[in-house]
Amino acid sequence: MCQISRSLSIVLTTLITASIFCTLPTITLAAQTENDTRTCLKCHKRNGQLHGVHASTALAIECQDCHGDKGSHPKKGSSINRFGANSPMSVTQQVAVCLSCHDPQTLANTEWTHNVHATRVSCTLCHQLHPEYDPMLSLDSKQHSQLCVTCHQVKH
Amino acid sequence: MSAFHFEGLVWHWPIAIYLFLAGLSAGAVFFAIMLKHFKLASEAYHSPFVQAAAIIAPLAVFGGLGILVIDLTKPLDFWKILVFYNTTSVMSMGVLVLMAYQVALFAWIGCIFHQGLTRLLDGRFGAIGRLSTRFIQMLVRQEAAITGILVILSISLGAYTGFLLSALIGFPLLNNPVLPLLFLISGLSSGAAATLLGGVLLRGNPNGIEVRFIHGIEIPMILVEIGLLFTFFAGLILSGGQSQVAALNALGYGFWGWIFWGGVIGIGLTLPLAFNLWMKVSADRKFTYVAVTASFSLIGVFLLRNFILYTGQMTGV
Amino acid sequence: METSKRQFLKGCGALIAGISVYTVTKSPLAENANTDASQTEVKYAMVHDENACIGCNACVEACRETNHVPDGVTRVKIERTGPFGNYPNQSYRFNRVSCQHCEAAPCVRVCPTGAAYIDKDTGIVAVNSDRCVGCQYCIAACPYQVRFINPETRTADKCDFCQQTQLSKGLQPACVLACPTQALTFGNLKDPDSALVKLLKTKPTYRAKVDLGTRPKLFHIQTIDGEVML
Questions:
Q1: Contacts of A105 in chain C (CB under 8 A)
Q2: Is C91 an 8 Å CB contact of chain A?
Q3: Residue B6 in domain
Q4: What mean pLDDT is predicted for residues B18-25?
Q5: Is residue C227 in some structural domain?
Q6: Are C214 and C116 contained in the same domain?
Q7: Residue B40 falls within a domain, yes or no?
Q8: Which of A21, A102, B280, B313 is deepest in the core (most CB within 10 A)?
Q9: C230 lies in a domain?
Q10: Are residues C118 and C188 in the same domain?
């Protein structure tokens, strides 16, 4: 009796520990092979590759950090985060994902236009973080002003 | 904000040197004429002080103009300033004054040293020598007129250095009616100092009649200069607005504050005034005394030109 | 006989010298200054609507390209102040800084050679760079600080409403055409039907530093955004 109850308690402890592990979101990614970068890249070999600054190993960014849990993707009813003009997410929701790491003040100091677009435009409308270089980082003054003109052009 | 490089700075130190040298030239001539008129009369030509003024005045005005020409972005086109005139431009009118001043200056020098020049030309250089001698004789006959014109032109030149800056309406410290007067008086005192310094360097008697005459004018002139500086800045502060900001910016702190209080007021005005007051009328004046007092005056005026030029451009309307 | 020949030669010499000085002295561009000033039918001016301006600098870039303005200097600047308000609801104010084409232009008054002049036919303040010696008096005299030395020509340079590059072809100034939000309106002040005059009569405008008596012709429509500043 005594023996059984001891082994039972070991089993129970293991089960409880495991269940805690499973529910913790950060550890989920590591624990569930279904929901990490490698899984995504099985299909998104080309368009899923992350290069450039965001791919730095020190940051250890997973697809899910920005795009959220896979959920039912690629089946219907998927809740995966998509960015850009056709995203079902609101601008504020999209921007919030970037702002979880980036600080508005630092962004403002680098480029004043960040301030006035914060609630109006998603970051990804100008920035691309998957390619090796974000084109925004190497704009000359002429390209910079043309970028403004592309959206702000008032029809004659 | 650095003292010599800041936003909105257009004119740099070469202009300050030019303003200094033009005022100095005018002042030296003015005092040489006064010396001749009131003290030396026909003995003027062998006074080392008049000789010094006759050397300093042309050199200073040439040096100043040289600096001005080099400071143009197109120095080789400087002749266009001489050919094209604009009656509303202070600079254009100043160039006219400068040209006339130089002509009158050389005519006057010719008058003063006519004996020596005639002796030098006598029987030499053939026809040119004879012609020059006759020309000098003609000048001597017109000496009174030449002297009168030169006095007017030297005062105009001294004042012009101030008007050049006071025409800049965008800078309240420069666009100030007292500035031409201040520059005229400080230019005259720098000319006096240069004449004294040059005179004693040419082995003039530091206790001579010339030194006493110039020192006699120097004390009232320093007092007038202090009065003008006070009026200048009091006027700016009382005007309020950007004028007040400009005045307090200039006097209040930093490098130029030190230059003003230590250099312009301290070395340039207070020390020479103190030296002059300590030196009793009866006491013998020594070489060192004259040379040091004159050098301090010169340093003070030179610093004042730089101070006004730079702090003037620091604050716009 | 001998004397008369000498006198004749002297006279000829003087005449040639006189004519050459006279012709050199006349400014080729200021030539049209001879036409009666009160009769002119054109007086160009510009309005900058600070509410429409987004600070994109398209005007600056267009000006640089059209007028071949070298890097490091510019004929037009958009000055930005701000941000006003708290993140993420912030705004900026934009102010066009360029030649105001003053009716009583300080630069023209101080120029010793007449290189800076007002074109009597159009009211444009222009630079005759052949006459400019680069004394920089005009740069110091301009209260709007819009003049600069062009590093290529080494003469004073500034906005001339694209007089040579656009107006002569019947086009509007490059900045006006480039502005995506139509914040710039250019036109003839003397023409009551021009868009410029209509705009000036419907919206309150201000001009910079009028207390200096410069009578500038660059009008601004004040921003209503941002906080009240004292």
A1: 87
A2: yes
A3: no
A4: 96
A5: no
A6: yes
A7: yes
A8: B313
A9: no
A10: yes
List the pLDDT tens digit at each of the 230 positions of chain C: 455 666 666 665 666 666 555 555 545 444 444 444 455 789 999 999 999 999 999 999 999 999 999 999 999 999 999 889 888 888 999 999 999 999 999 999 999 999 999 999 999 999 999 999 999 999 999 999 999 999 999 999 999 999 999 999 999 999 999 999 999 999 999 999 999 999 999 999 999 999 999 999 999 999 887 778 77
Q: Are residues C176 and C111 both part of a single domain?
A: yes
- Report if residue B27 sits inside a domain: yes
**Using the beta-carbon criterion (under 8 Å), do C154 and B73 form an inter-chain contact?**
yes
**Chains within contact range of chain C (3+ C-beta pairs < 8 Å):** A, B
Q: Which pTM does this prediction carry? A: 0.83
Q: How distant is the alpha carbon of residue C120 from its chain centre?
A: 13
Q: Can you tell me which residue has the tokens 């001016």?
A: C45
Per-residue H/E/C for B304-315: HHHHHHHHHHHC
Interatomic CA distance for residues B171 and B8, integer angstroms: 10
Closest chain A residue to C86, measured at CA: A115
Cα separation, B192 vs B219, whole angstroms: 12
Q: Which chain C residues are closer than 8 Å to A149 by Cβ?
A: 56, 58, 180
Full domain range(s) for residue B241: 13-314
Is B1 within a domain? no
Both C42 and C17 in one domain: the answer is no
CA angle at A106 for the pair A104 and A111, rounded to the nearest 5°: 90
Question: Residue C159's Cα: distance from chain center in Å?
Answer: 4
Interface test with A, best of C54, C73, C80 (most A CBs within 10 A): C54
Tally the domains of chain C.
2
User: Tens digit of pLDDT for each residue in B239-266?
Assistant: 999 999 999 999 988 899 999 999 999 9
Q: Look up the CATH number of the domain holding residue B189.
A: 1.20.1630.10
Q: How many domains does chain B have?
A: 1
- Any idea what DSSP says for residue C135? -
User: Token match 């031409």: residue?
Assistant: B180
Choose among B11, B78, B92: nearest Cβ to C140: B11
What distance in Å separates the CA atoms of residue C127 and residue C156, rounded to the nearest whole number?
7
> What CATH number has the domain bearing residue C127?
3.30.70.20
What is the span of the domain harbouring residue C26? 1-30
**Tens digits of residue pLDDT in B63-108:** 999 999 999 999 999 999 999 999 999 999 999 999 999 999 999 9
Given CB atoms, is C145 within the 8 Å cutoff of chain B?
A: yes
Crossing angle (nearest 10°) for helices A141-152 and C58-66: 120
| Arithmetic mean of pLDDT, B163-187 | 95
